[in-house]
Design goal:
This is Glycoside hydrolase family 1 protein. One of its GO terms (biological process) is carbohydrate catabolic process. It comes from Sporolactobacillus shoreae. This protein is about 40% helix and about 15% strand. The protein has about 475 residues and is an alpha/beta fold. The strands form 4 sheets. Strands 1-2-3-4-5-7-11-12 form an 8-stranded parallel β-barrel, surrounded by 5 helices. Helix 7 runs parallel beside helix 9 (about 215-240) and helix 13 runs parallel beside helix 14. The radius of gyration is 21 Å and the shape is globular.
Length: about 475
């Protein structure tokens, strides 16, 4: 297998880090913010998370969590970025960030999700965040919807099950496009849009026991998001022709578990189910292979006249994706299942495993980049990649060689893919500062270059502490990827 002796990244490559409002901001009830879907997700203990983690809520759980004042809901307090953003952005600037990915909390702008007039205090907060980024020459990369459906839309419409949510999302997006048209160039519509079929509550604020058609609801909601994405892409370019609007996919390269042709076909089908979402958002049309899938699985998608033409007319400008692990699939059931959150496969004996059971596969990122570029021929942006691990503070220091090793090998494979011919414009590691885990709402699963003194229950000083990886990543950026 060829490996470049010298890894060359293009000039202007966008190095940085990625976060989400619901995992860092806190201040869930400050300055007019409304509740969003993640404010109701409780901490999941180690015992509870054995096997597959449910990231959905039943009606009973939803109503209970709305009123609960005793349970631990870590995304409500995050890491207090809301009050500490200047300190944190200064740390990112010290590392040399060119770009910082953040989401705008929809419920901070429109507390219920469907008001006509926005919350000025919410808008002003993001003005301040973007101004602080520009102070250090950092480009904001903004996700419009990062699993943060306002609770008001969940209660009124069952989230994205209803087509009516499209209009509210378009109103929200138009509001922030106009407000930040001179401060933000790069936008993402929906974070990991494919998650909506794995966890309808996470991806779309949908409570399954309230859905009219539970079998079809994930794909129906995805269609509503496709339409919304096309509409806001159109509007974004009308407001500022320099805007770059991307889609975002949770990507795991899927391998056949054996050489059995049945397994090879299965892996191809699973890859297609993953790439269906980008087929629609980049190519602008539903792929033919999904017709058979919908028919065989009793899935019915209701479209309005003009939907297909809209999708074709307003595809995204670039494709972004998260990559943490690859998956293996097999019809041979004597193979043990790997651990993970929403995406699981068979254990791949050639790969090492993280503390959380995710198999580590840097070469899979090169494979993914090459496959995506051949398939779509649009710029690619890796907007999430990182290692969740237990960190120990020893004499005021965190020696996280394991994180450096993980990131080094993945970045090396990005460089290889660029040499292969893939057009890769940037890389934002997840998350550059310790934050609340998406799937389990814990702090123990740490990703950052910066340690935050806070435990799973929100206790601690919130002091920020640089890890060894902080200084390593600073050198990587300064050398544009040559010094790994």
């Amino acid at each position: 297998m060829p490996q470049s002796q010298t890894i060359l990244f293009p000039e202007g490559f966008l190095w940085g880090g990625a976060t989400a409002a619901n995992q860092i901001e806190g201040a869930y009830n400050s300055d007019g913010k409304g509740l969003d879907a993640q404010d109701l997700m409780p901490f999941v203990t180690k015992e509870q998370r054995k096997g597959r983690i449910s990231m959905d809520l039943t009606s009973e759980q939803f109503e209970h969590n709305l009123k609960d004042e005793v349970g631990v809901y870590p995304k409500r307090f995050g890491i207090d970025f809301y009050h500490r953003y200047k300190e944190d952005i200064k740390l990112f600037a010290e590392m040399g960030f060119k770009v910082f990915r953040i989401s705008i909390s929809w419920a901070r702008i429109f507390p219920k999700g469907y008001e006509q007039e926005p919350n000025e205090k919410g808008l002003s907060f993001y003005d301040s965040v973007f101004d602080e980024c520009h102070k250090y020459g950092i480009q904001p990369l903004v996700t419009l919807s990062h699993y943060e459906t306002p609770v008001g839309l969940i209660k009124k419409y069952n989230g994205w099950e209803s087509r009516e949510v499209i209009d509210h999302f378009v109103h929200y997006a138009t509001t922030v496009f106009n407000r930040y048209k001179d401060k933000v160039k790069y936008w993402l519509t929906f974070n990991e849009i494919n998650v909506i079929t794995k966890s309808p509550y996470t991806g779309g604020g949908i409570i399954l026991d309230r859905a009219k058609d539970p079998v079809s609801v994930g794909y129906q909601a995805a269609h509503h998001q496709f339409v919304a994405s096309a509409l806001v892409t159109k509007i974004a370019h009308e407001i500022n022709s320099d805007f770059c609007v991307g889609c975002m996919l949770a990507r795991s390269e899927i391998y056949p578990g054996t050489n059995d042709p049945v397994d090879i076909l299965l892996a191809q089908q699973e890859n297609n189910l993953n790439l269906f979402f980008t087929d629609v958002q980049v190519r602008g049309e539903y792929p033919a292979y999904m017709t058979r899938y919908f028919e065989e699985n009793g899935i019915h998608i209701h479209k309005k006249t003009g939907d297909d033409e809209l999708l074709k007319s307003y595809p995204v400008d670039f494709l972004s994706f998260s990559y943490y692990t690859s998956l293996s699939v097999s019809t041979h059931h004597d193979t043990a299942a790997s651990e993970g959150n929403l995406f699981q496969g068979q254990v791949n004996p050639y790969l090492e495993t993280s503390d959380w059971g995710w198999q580590i596969d840097p070469i899979g990122l090169r494979v993914a980049l090459n496959d995506l570029y051949v398939r779509y021929r649009v710029p690619l942006f890796i907007v999430e990649n990182g290692l969740g691990a237990y960190d120990k503070v020893e004499n005021g220091q965190i020696h996280d060689d394991y994180r450096i090793s993980y990131l080094r090998e993945h970045i090396r494979q990005i460089g290889e893919a660029i040499q292969d011919g893939a057009d890769v414009i940037g890389y934002t590691s997840w998350g550059p500062i310790d934050l609340v885990s998406m799937s389990t709402s814990e702090m123990s699963k740490r990703y950052g270059f910066v340690y935050v003194d806070q435990d799973d229950e929100g206790k601690g000083t919130l002091k920020r502490l640089k890890k060894d990886s902080f200084y390593w990543y600073k050198k990587v950026i300064a050398s544009n990827g040559r010094e790994l």
